Amino acid sequence: MSRRRSFTPARLRRAMNWWPPYLFSGVRVLEIADDWSSARVRLRLGPFNRNYVGTHFGGSLFAMSDPFWMLLTMNSLGRDYVVWDKAGEIEFVAPGRGDVFAEFKLSEDQLEEIRRETADGGRALPWFGCEIVGEDGAVVARVRKQLYVRRKQPKVPDSTEG
Predict the structure, then answer these.
(1) Radius of gyration in angstroms for the set of CA atoms belonging to the chain, rounded to a whole number
(2) How far is 15 from 20, CA to CA, in rounded Å?
(3) Are 43 and 56 in contact, with CB atoms under 8 Å apart?
(4) Is the dihedral of CA 95, 101, 107, 112 positive or negative?
(5) Gap between the Cα atoms of 68 and 36, Å rounded
(6) Looking at the DSSP assignment, which residues form a beta bridge with residue 38?
(7) Taking the model in full, what pTM does it have?
(8) Close Cβ partners of 84 (under 8 Å, ≥ 6 residues apart)
(9) CA distance linking residue 140 with residue 121, whole number of Å
(10) At residue 110, does pLDDT exceed 60?
(11) Rounded-to-integer distance, Cα 64 and Cα 123, Å
(12) DSSP H helical segments within the chain, as ranges?
């Protein structure tokens, strides 16, 4: 039996801030909304996430945004759904030379569309996007993530039990 830990948004935020890949790369989860509808993340420019020319390493920019669409969608839909990352892409727009931020906003319309697409047992493959911006609001990168979502199959009782 698989068990997913039950985290409140505040508890998940604190746990992620102590998670070694984020802790040591300068990623800080600033906020996860109480209703799982949004999250905000900061990446500080430091010695361990600079590239050869002294700007943000592209892998760190992608990593700062990696889990949030899945986490928000999974927790918003509840335990009756399977949610996985399927694909991701990043477009580098400008060099990141200071702290950068990403904000993720999941709308009720997006969730309703997923529910409609999966109501008959099928899957949904929604795309979500966000911009990574510098302190001045200038776009540093655009990130897109595709999720795989389906309703869990009802458990069939095992006829050998008894």
Answers:
(1) 18
(2) 10
(3) yes
(4) positive
(5) 10
(6) 105
(7) 0.88
(8) 70, 147, 148, 149
(9) 39
(10) yes
(11) 27
(12) 9-18, 20-23, 58-65, 68-77, 108-118
